[in-house]
Amino acid sequence: MKQSRLSRLPQLVRSIFLPRKSAAVPAGMEPVNRMASMEQSMEQSMEQSMEQSADGPVDLVLDQAVDLTSPTTRLRSPDADTAREAALELGRIGDRAALQSLLDAVINLAGFYHPLVRAAAARSLGQIKDCRATDALIAATADPIAEVSEEATIALGKIGELHSIEPLMAIVTNKNGYFLHPVRQAAVTALGQFRDARVASQILSVSMNEFEDPGVRQAARDLGNWP
User: Fold this and answer.
1) Above 70 in pLDDT, residue 148?
2) For the chain, first and last CA: distance in Å?
3) pLDDT tens digits, one per residue of 20-35
4) Phi, psi (5° rounding) for residue 47?
5) Residue 216 · residue 206 · CB < 8 Å
6) Are residues 153 and 139 in contact, defined by beta-carbon separation less than 8 angstroms?
7) Count of Cβ atoms closer than 10 Å to residue 216 Cβ
8) Less crowded by CB within 10 Å, the N or C end of the chain?
């Protein structure tokens, strides 16, 4: 008899298809033999069913198996480089179906994701440009790792949601001195995506401030005659 396709299934899945053991064992049949008999019977039944339909239960289970090569799956890799590349790939292909996975990486509630992965996920959210990512990215601008904060700031400019203006302006003002200059520079550039009187006033003020960090000041000047 040819090898049964049921043997391809892991033990957990096989237990779903096979009946549970009964406390009552028929006379003259040991438990091991009883299970073997039940499995053989079940295999025969399944094979008959699959002959009638190309999409039998085994095919269904196999088709729904997790694709370990997909970028969404690789995003959860414990290897930071692998997960980072997966996050960047999701941004390149613009996969909105992966939005929640990228948000999980940016929010990082369980502390699982490496800063490289969080930064890459923030960048990809900016490429996908889904407004639902705005609040998570605003929170990520306060990430203690500057690279994550910078990528989240840049992404907010690309998405262009109006309620991100105030947080971006606060980064530029930097009253408590929390944000590093590269993040503030990114915030100036991001604000350049908005046509708002408040933004125009702040950018002009930064561009004319002789005591401002040179990189931040230059970012404001690079906006030219904006708006």
Assistant:
1) yes
2) 78
3) 443 444 444 444 454 4
4) -65, -40
5) yes
6) no
7) 24
8) N
